[in-house]
Amino acid sequence: MMMRDFIYKILSTATARIINLFLSIIILMITARYLGPEGRGLIAATTTWVGLYFTILCFSISPVTIYIYASAHVHEKKEIFLQLRGAHRIFVVSLTLIGWFILILTYLFTPNIYKGIPFDILILSFLLLPFMILENYQQSLLQCVDRVKTINVAMVMNKSIAVVVLVFLVGFMKIGVYGVLIAYLAGQALVYIYQMVSINNVYKKVVYNLTLVKKMLVQSVKLHLNAIASFFFTSTDIIMLNYFRSTSEVGIYQLAVQLMSLLLIIPQSASVVTYSKVAELGVDNAWPYQRKIMLIVMGLLSIIMCFIYFLSPWIVLLLAGREFLESSSVFRYLIIASFGQSISILFAPQWIGRGIFITVSILSLITAIANVIMNFFFIPVHGIYGAVWSTIITSFGLVLGNLYLYRKHVVKTKGRRANVT
Questions:
Q1: Which of 149, 153, 145, 150 is nearest to 202 (CA)?
Q2: Which of 39, 50, 349, 382 has the fewest CB neighbours in a 10 Å radius?
Q3: Which pLDDT does position 416 carry in this prediction?
Q4: Separation of alpha carbons 94 and 103, rounded Å
Protein backbone atom coordinates (compact mmCIF):
# COMPACT_ATOMS: atom_id res chain seq x y z
CA MET A 1 0.00 0.00 0.00
CA MET A 2 2.81 2.37 0.89
CA MET A 3 4.57 1.64 -2.40
CA ARG A 4 1.33 2.26 -4.30
CA ASP A 5 0.92 5.62 -2.54
CA PHE A 6 4.57 6.41 -3.31
CA ILE A 7 4.05 5.72 -7.02
CA TYR A 8 0.77 7.68 -7.03
CA LYS A 9 2.52 10.76 -5.64
CA ILE A 10 5.27 10.44 -8.23
CA LEU A 11 2.69 10.18 -11.02
CA SER A 12 0.74 13.17 -9.71
CA THR A 13 3.97 15.17 -9.45
CA ALA A 14 4.94 14.10 -12.96
CA THR A 15 1.48 15.14 -14.19
CA ALA A 16 1.88 18.56 -12.60
CA ARG A 17 5.28 18.90 -14.21
CA ILE A 18 3.86 17.86 -17.59
CA ILE A 19 1.20 20.56 -17.26
CA ASN A 20 3.99 22.90 -16.24
CA LEU A 21 5.88 21.72 -19.31
CA PHE A 22 2.91 22.52 -21.54
CA LEU A 23 2.73 26.01 -20.03
CA SER A 24 6.51 26.41 -20.48
CA ILE A 25 6.08 25.45 -24.13
CA ILE A 26 3.47 28.17 -24.53
CA ILE A 27 5.89 30.67 -22.95
CA LEU A 28 8.66 29.41 -25.21
CA MET A 29 6.49 29.72 -28.33
CA ILE A 30 5.34 33.24 -27.47
CA THR A 31 8.82 34.50 -26.61
CA ALA A 32 10.47 32.76 -29.59
CA ARG A 33 7.98 34.13 -32.12
CA TYR A 34 7.60 37.63 -30.69
CA LEU A 35 11.19 38.23 -29.55
CA GLY A 36 13.23 36.13 -32.04
CA PRO A 37 16.65 34.56 -31.33
CA GLU A 38 18.14 37.84 -30.10
CA GLY A 39 15.29 38.59 -27.70
CA ARG A 40 15.31 34.99 -26.48
CA GLY A 41 19.06 35.30 -25.99
CA LEU A 42 18.60 38.42 -23.86
CA ILE A 43 15.97 36.69 -21.71
CA ALA A 44 18.23 33.63 -21.40
CA ALA A 45 21.26 35.70 -20.33
CA THR A 46 19.23 37.80 -17.86
CA THR A 47 17.41 34.92 -16.18
CA THR A 48 20.65 32.93 -16.04
CA TRP A 49 22.25 35.75 -14.07
CA VAL A 50 19.29 35.83 -11.69
CA GLY A 51 19.61 32.06 -11.39
CA LEU A 52 23.30 32.38 -10.55
CA TYR A 53 22.61 34.89 -7.75
CA PHE A 54 19.72 32.74 -6.49
CA THR A 55 21.89 29.61 -6.44
CA ILE A 56 24.66 31.35 -4.53
CA LEU A 57 22.42 33.24 -2.13
CA CYS A 58 19.81 30.58 -1.27
CA PHE A 59 22.75 28.96 0.54
CA SER A 60 21.42 25.38 0.26
CA ILE A 61 19.05 26.01 3.16
CA SER A 62 16.34 23.82 1.58
CA PRO A 63 18.16 20.46 1.68
CA VAL A 64 19.54 21.31 5.12
CA THR A 65 15.95 21.96 6.24
CA ILE A 66 14.93 18.45 5.14
CA TYR A 67 18.02 16.93 6.79
CA ILE A 68 17.36 18.66 10.14
CA TYR A 69 13.66 17.77 10.13
CA ALA A 70 14.35 14.14 9.14
CA SER A 71 16.99 13.83 11.90
CA ALA A 72 14.67 15.12 14.65
CA HIS A 73 12.82 12.77 16.99
CA VAL A 74 9.07 12.43 16.39
CA HIS A 75 8.09 14.48 19.46
CA GLU A 76 10.48 17.29 18.43
CA LYS A 77 9.30 17.65 14.83
CA LYS A 78 6.56 20.25 15.43
CA GLU A 79 8.86 22.60 17.36
CA ILE A 80 11.65 22.13 14.83
CA PHE A 81 9.21 22.96 12.02
CA LEU A 82 8.23 26.24 13.71
CA GLN A 83 11.88 27.14 14.27
CA LEU A 84 12.70 26.34 10.64
CA ARG A 85 10.02 28.83 9.53
CA GLY A 86 11.63 31.54 11.64
CA ALA A 87 15.10 30.72 10.36
CA HIS A 88 13.86 30.92 6.76
CA ARG A 89 12.54 34.45 7.26
CA ILE A 90 15.85 35.63 8.67
CA PHE A 91 17.74 34.09 5.75
CA VAL A 92 15.41 35.50 3.06
CA VAL A 93 15.66 39.11 4.22
CA SER A 94 19.42 38.99 4.82
CA LEU A 95 20.35 37.19 1.60
CA THR A 96 18.10 39.29 -0.65
CA LEU A 97 19.66 42.53 0.61
CA ILE A 98 23.15 41.09 0.10
CA GLY A 99 22.24 40.03 -3.46
CA TRP A 100 20.90 43.44 -4.46
CA PHE A 101 23.95 45.14 -2.98
CA ILE A 102 26.34 42.88 -4.92
CA LEU A 103 24.37 43.45 -8.15
CA ILE A 104 24.62 47.23 -7.92
CA LEU A 105 28.27 47.10 -6.87
CA THR A 106 29.31 44.78 -9.71
CA TYR A 107 27.34 46.76 -12.32
CA LEU A 108 28.99 50.02 -11.24
CA PHE A 109 32.56 48.71 -11.20
CA THR A 110 32.55 45.77 -13.67
CA PRO A 111 29.59 46.36 -16.04
CA ASN A 112 31.16 44.28 -18.83
CA ILE A 113 30.30 41.02 -17.08
CA TYR A 114 26.63 41.77 -17.83
CA LYS A 115 27.50 42.25 -21.48
CA GLY A 116 24.54 43.36 -23.60
CA ILE A 117 22.00 43.47 -20.74
CA PRO A 118 20.49 46.96 -20.14
CA PHE A 119 20.53 48.08 -16.51
CA ASP A 120 16.74 48.56 -16.26
CA ILE A 121 16.11 45.01 -17.49
CA LEU A 122 18.69 43.70 -15.02
CA ILE A 123 17.03 45.54 -12.12
CA LEU A 124 13.55 44.33 -13.11
CA SER A 125 14.73 40.73 -13.37
CA PHE A 126 16.37 40.86 -9.92
CA LEU A 127 13.03 41.68 -8.29
CA LEU A 128 12.45 37.96 -8.80
CA LEU A 129 15.24 37.07 -6.38
CA PRO A 130 13.43 37.21 -2.98
CA PHE A 131 10.41 35.35 -4.35
CA MET A 132 12.61 32.61 -5.83
CA ILE A 133 14.35 32.16 -2.46
CA LEU A 134 11.02 32.13 -0.61
CA GLU A 135 9.49 29.55 -2.97
CA ASN A 136 12.54 27.33 -2.60
CA TYR A 137 12.54 27.48 1.21
CA GLN A 138 8.78 27.02 1.55
CA GLN A 139 8.84 24.00 -0.75
CA SER A 140 11.27 22.29 1.61
CA LEU A 141 8.88 22.87 4.53
CA LEU A 142 6.02 21.41 2.49
CA GLN A 143 8.16 18.37 1.68
CA CYS A 144 8.85 17.86 5.39
CA VAL A 145 5.12 17.53 6.14
CA ASP A 146 4.43 15.54 2.95
CA ARG A 147 2.34 18.24 1.22
CA VAL A 148 3.27 17.05 -2.27
CA LYS A 149 -0.11 18.12 -3.68
CA THR A 150 0.45 21.70 -2.52
CA ILE A 151 3.88 21.74 -4.16
CA ASN A 152 2.35 20.53 -7.43
CA VAL A 153 -0.45 23.10 -7.39
CA ALA A 154 2.05 25.89 -6.68
CA MET A 155 4.21 24.76 -9.59
CA VAL A 156 1.31 24.84 -12.06
CA MET A 157 -0.02 28.10 -10.62
CA ASN A 158 3.32 29.85 -11.16
CA LYS A 159 3.46 29.11 -14.88
CA SER A 160 -0.31 29.58 -15.41
CA ILE A 161 -0.22 33.12 -14.06
CA ALA A 162 2.94 33.82 -16.05
CA VAL A 163 1.28 32.63 -19.30
CA VAL A 164 -1.81 34.81 -18.81
CA VAL A 165 0.24 37.92 -18.05
CA LEU A 166 2.68 37.09 -20.87
CA VAL A 167 -0.08 36.77 -23.49
CA PHE A 168 -1.45 40.16 -22.48
CA LEU A 169 1.85 42.07 -22.13
CA VAL A 170 3.87 40.47 -24.96
CA GLY A 171 1.14 39.27 -27.33
CA PHE A 172 -1.24 42.25 -27.12
CA MET A 173 0.66 45.13 -25.52
CA LYS A 174 3.94 44.35 -27.41
CA ILE A 175 6.09 45.21 -24.35
CA GLY A 176 8.70 42.57 -25.27
CA VAL A 177 11.40 41.57 -22.79
CA TYR A 178 9.90 43.77 -20.06
CA GLY A 179 6.58 41.94 -20.40
CA VAL A 180 8.28 38.56 -20.03
CA LEU A 181 9.99 39.57 -16.78
CA ILE A 182 6.81 41.14 -15.35
CA ALA A 183 4.95 37.90 -16.15
CA TYR A 184 7.59 35.85 -14.32
CA LEU A 185 7.38 38.23 -11.35
CA ALA A 186 3.57 37.96 -11.13
CA GLY A 187 3.76 34.15 -11.11
CA GLN A 188 6.43 34.03 -8.39
CA ALA A 189 4.67 36.55 -6.13
CA LEU A 190 1.29 34.79 -6.16
CA VAL A 191 2.88 31.37 -5.60
CA TYR A 192 4.64 32.74 -2.51
CA ILE A 193 1.26 33.82 -1.09
CA TYR A 194 -0.31 30.42 -1.85
CA GLN A 195 2.55 28.48 -0.25
CA MET A 196 2.52 30.70 2.84
CA VAL A 197 -1.24 30.17 3.35
CA SER A 198 -0.75 26.39 2.92
CA ILE A 199 2.03 26.29 5.52
CA ASN A 200 -0.08 28.36 7.92
CA ASN A 201 -2.78 25.70 7.62
CA VAL A 202 -0.26 23.20 9.05
CA TYR A 203 1.27 25.37 11.80
CA LYS A 204 0.57 29.11 12.04
CA LYS A 205 3.17 29.92 14.67
CA VAL A 206 6.71 31.05 13.83
CA VAL A 207 9.58 30.61 16.32
CA TYR A 208 12.91 32.40 16.01
CA ASN A 209 15.84 30.40 17.32
CA LEU A 210 19.27 31.87 16.54
CA THR A 211 20.97 28.65 17.66
CA LEU A 212 19.15 26.77 14.90
CA VAL A 213 20.00 29.54 12.41
CA LYS A 214 23.68 29.10 13.28
CA LYS A 215 23.42 25.31 12.99
CA MET A 216 21.74 25.60 9.57
CA LEU A 217 24.40 28.02 8.41
CA VAL A 218 27.20 25.63 9.41
CA GLN A 219 25.54 22.67 7.67
CA SER A 220 24.69 24.70 4.56
CA VAL A 221 28.30 25.83 4.15
CA LYS A 222 29.27 22.16 3.80
CA LEU A 223 26.62 21.57 1.13
CA HIS A 224 26.41 24.93 -0.60
CA LEU A 225 29.46 24.35 -2.71
CA ASN A 226 27.43 21.54 -4.29
CA ALA A 227 24.62 23.94 -5.30
CA ILE A 228 27.03 26.51 -6.73
CA ALA A 229 28.97 23.84 -8.58
CA SER A 230 25.72 22.35 -9.93
CA PHE A 231 24.69 25.75 -11.26
CA PHE A 232 28.05 26.26 -12.92
CA PHE A 233 27.71 22.80 -14.40
CA THR A 234 24.30 23.60 -15.92
CA SER A 235 24.50 27.34 -16.65
CA THR A 236 28.04 28.55 -17.30
CA ASP A 237 27.78 27.31 -20.86
CA ILE A 238 25.03 29.92 -21.47
CA ILE A 239 26.99 32.70 -19.75
CA MET A 240 30.18 31.79 -21.64
CA LEU A 241 28.33 31.52 -24.95
CA ASN A 242 26.93 34.98 -24.29
CA TYR A 243 30.46 36.25 -23.64
CA PHE A 244 32.34 34.52 -26.48
CA ARG A 245 29.64 34.25 -29.16
CA SER A 246 26.38 35.98 -30.23
CA THR A 247 23.02 36.29 -28.45
CA SER A 248 21.45 34.36 -31.36
CA GLU A 249 23.64 31.35 -30.57
CA VAL A 250 22.67 31.68 -26.90
CA GLY A 251 18.98 31.60 -27.91
CA ILE A 252 19.45 28.49 -30.08
CA TYR A 253 21.46 26.66 -27.42
CA GLN A 254 19.16 27.63 -24.56
CA LEU A 255 16.13 26.31 -26.43
CA ALA A 256 17.89 22.93 -26.73
CA VAL A 257 18.78 23.03 -23.02
CA GLN A 258 15.16 23.76 -22.14
CA LEU A 259 14.01 20.83 -24.25
CA MET A 260 16.57 18.62 -22.50
CA SER A 261 15.24 19.79 -19.13
CA LEU A 262 11.83 18.46 -20.14
CA LEU A 263 13.27 14.95 -20.16
CA LEU A 264 14.22 15.44 -16.52
CA ILE A 265 10.59 15.88 -15.43
CA ILE A 266 10.13 12.23 -14.42
CA PRO A 267 13.35 11.87 -12.35
CA GLN A 268 12.71 15.27 -10.74
CA SER A 269 9.17 14.19 -9.82
CA ALA A 270 10.50 10.99 -8.29
CA SER A 271 13.11 12.98 -6.37
CA VAL A 272 10.55 15.41 -4.88
CA VAL A 273 8.47 12.53 -3.51
CA THR A 274 11.56 10.63 -2.34
CA TYR A 275 12.70 13.61 -0.25
CA SER A 276 9.35 13.49 1.59
CA LYS A 277 9.75 9.74 2.12
CA VAL A 278 13.28 10.20 3.48
CA ALA A 279 12.01 12.89 5.88
CA GLU A 280 9.24 10.54 7.04
CA LEU A 281 11.01 7.15 7.26
CA GLY A 282 14.70 7.98 7.49
CA VAL A 283 17.29 7.39 4.80
CA ASP A 284 17.83 3.63 5.27
CA ASN A 285 14.15 2.69 5.48
CA ALA A 286 13.33 4.79 2.43
CA TRP A 287 16.05 3.18 0.26
CA PRO A 288 14.07 0.06 -0.86
CA TYR A 289 11.33 2.33 -2.26
CA GLN A 290 13.85 4.66 -3.83
CA ARG A 291 15.76 1.80 -5.49
CA LYS A 292 12.61 0.37 -7.12
CA ILE A 293 11.55 3.79 -8.35
CA MET A 294 15.01 4.45 -9.81
CA LEU A 295 14.87 1.25 -11.87
CA ILE A 296 11.35 2.01 -13.15
CA VAL A 297 12.17 5.65 -13.97
CA MET A 298 15.41 4.94 -15.84
CA GLY A 299 13.77 2.17 -17.87
CA LEU A 300 10.87 4.42 -18.85
CA LEU A 301 13.19 7.31 -19.58
CA SER A 302 15.33 5.20 -21.93
CA ILE A 303 12.27 4.40 -24.07
CA ILE A 304 11.13 8.04 -24.13
CA MET A 305 14.61 9.24 -25.13
CA CYS A 306 14.63 6.97 -28.19
CA PHE A 307 11.33 8.40 -29.45
CA ILE A 308 12.31 12.00 -28.71
CA TYR A 309 15.61 11.61 -30.57
CA PHE A 310 13.82 10.91 -33.86
CA LEU A 311 11.04 13.46 -33.30
CA SER A 312 13.29 16.37 -32.28
CA PRO A 313 13.29 18.30 -35.64
CA TRP A 314 9.47 18.33 -35.73
CA ILE A 315 9.29 19.31 -32.06
CA VAL A 316 11.54 22.34 -32.63
CA LEU A 317 9.67 23.39 -35.79
CA LEU A 318 6.35 23.18 -33.97
CA LEU A 319 7.50 25.07 -30.90
CA ALA A 320 9.81 27.77 -32.24
CA GLY A 321 9.83 27.79 -36.05
CA ARG A 322 12.54 27.40 -38.68
CA GLU A 323 14.76 30.08 -37.15
CA PHE A 324 15.54 27.65 -34.32
CA LEU A 325 15.90 24.47 -36.42
CA GLU A 326 19.57 24.08 -35.44
CA SER A 327 18.37 23.58 -31.86
CA SER A 328 17.11 20.11 -32.87
CA SER A 329 20.65 18.90 -33.67
CA VAL A 330 21.93 20.34 -30.39
CA PHE A 331 19.03 18.75 -28.51
CA ARG A 332 19.81 15.30 -29.93
CA TYR A 333 23.29 15.43 -28.41
CA LEU A 334 21.98 16.75 -25.09
CA ILE A 335 19.62 13.77 -24.79
CA ILE A 336 22.76 11.73 -24.05
CA ALA A 337 23.70 14.12 -21.25
CA SER A 338 20.20 13.98 -19.74
CA PHE A 339 20.65 10.26 -19.00
CA GLY A 340 23.60 10.94 -16.70
CA GLN A 341 21.87 13.91 -15.06
CA SER A 342 18.76 11.79 -14.37
CA ILE A 343 20.81 9.27 -12.40
CA SER A 344 22.34 12.06 -10.33
CA ILE A 345 18.90 13.56 -9.58
CA LEU A 346 17.47 10.21 -8.47
CA PHE A 347 20.36 9.50 -6.09
CA ALA A 348 20.33 12.98 -4.47
CA PRO A 349 17.81 12.32 -1.63
CA GLN A 350 20.07 9.53 -0.32
CA TRP A 351 23.10 11.78 -0.04
CA ILE A 352 21.17 14.67 1.55
CA GLY A 353 19.45 12.30 3.98
CA ARG A 354 22.81 10.81 5.02
CA GLY A 355 24.27 14.28 5.58
CA ILE A 356 27.35 13.64 3.43
CA PHE A 357 27.40 17.28 2.37
CA ILE A 358 31.15 17.78 2.00
CA THR A 359 31.59 14.67 -0.18
CA VAL A 360 28.71 15.67 -2.46
CA SER A 361 30.10 19.21 -2.71
CA ILE A 362 33.54 17.96 -3.70
CA LEU A 363 32.04 15.74 -6.41
CA SER A 364 29.99 18.64 -7.82
CA LEU A 365 32.95 21.02 -7.62
CA ILE A 366 35.20 18.69 -9.61
CA THR A 367 32.48 18.29 -12.25
CA ALA A 368 31.82 22.05 -12.45
CA ILE A 369 35.50 22.96 -12.76
CA ALA A 370 35.93 20.39 -15.53
CA ASN A 371 32.89 21.83 -17.31
CA VAL A 372 34.12 25.44 -17.06
CA ILE A 373 37.62 24.50 -18.28
CA MET A 374 36.26 22.57 -21.26
CA ASN A 375 33.82 25.38 -22.09
CA PHE A 376 36.65 27.91 -21.93
CA PHE A 377 38.62 26.01 -24.59
CA PHE A 378 35.77 24.53 -26.65
CA ILE A 379 33.25 27.42 -26.96
CA PRO A 380 35.53 30.04 -28.62
CA VAL A 381 36.47 27.47 -31.29
CA HIS A 382 33.39 25.25 -31.68
CA GLY A 383 30.63 27.54 -30.37
CA ILE A 384 27.42 25.77 -29.40
CA TYR A 385 28.82 22.28 -29.97
CA GLY A 386 31.76 23.00 -27.70
CA ALA A 387 29.25 23.59 -24.89
CA VAL A 388 27.38 20.41 -25.88
CA TRP A 389 30.39 18.12 -25.60
CA SER A 390 31.45 19.68 -22.31
CA THR A 391 27.97 18.92 -20.92
CA ILE A 392 27.99 15.31 -22.17
CA ILE A 393 31.43 14.50 -20.76
CA THR A 394 30.76 16.02 -17.34
CA SER A 395 27.29 14.40 -17.11
CA PHE A 396 28.86 10.96 -17.27
CA GLY A 397 31.44 12.10 -14.74
CA LEU A 398 28.46 12.64 -12.40
CA VAL A 399 27.31 9.06 -13.02
CA LEU A 400 30.70 7.67 -11.98
CA GLY A 401 30.70 9.87 -8.87
CA ASN A 402 27.22 8.72 -7.80
CA LEU A 403 28.13 5.07 -8.31
CA TYR A 404 31.15 5.61 -6.06
CA LEU A 405 28.93 7.14 -3.35
CA TYR A 406 26.44 4.30 -3.72
CA ARG A 407 29.15 1.70 -3.17
CA LYS A 408 30.64 3.56 -0.23
CA HIS A 409 27.51 4.64 1.65
CA VAL A 410 24.70 2.27 0.65
CA VAL A 411 26.34 -1.07 -0.14
CA LYS A 412 28.84 -0.93 2.75
CA THR A 413 26.15 0.23 5.21
CA LYS A 414 24.01 -2.77 4.26
CA GLY A 415 27.05 -5.01 4.70
CA ARG A 416 27.76 -3.66 8.19
CA ARG A 417 24.14 -4.16 9.19
CA ALA A 418 24.19 -7.74 7.92
CA ASN A 419 27.33 -8.45 9.99
CA VAL A 420 25.70 -6.99 13.11
CA THR A 421 22.60 -9.11 12.54
A1: 145
A2: 382
A3: 52
A4: 15
Residue 321: phi, psi to the nearest 5? 95, 175
On average, the pLDDT of the chain sits at 86
CA-CA distance, 258 to 338, in Å (whole number)? 11
What is the identity of the amino acid at 126?
Answer: F
Burial environment of residue 396 by CB neighbours within 10 A (0 to 12, 13 to 18, 19 or more): middle
The CA-based angle 237-243-364, given to 5 degrees, is: 30
pTM over 0.85: no
* Percent residues over pLDDT 90 in the chain: 30
Lowest average pLDDT, out of 4-13, 179-188, 192-201, goes to 4-13
**Length of the chain (residues):** 421
Higher pLDDT pick, 398 / 94: 94
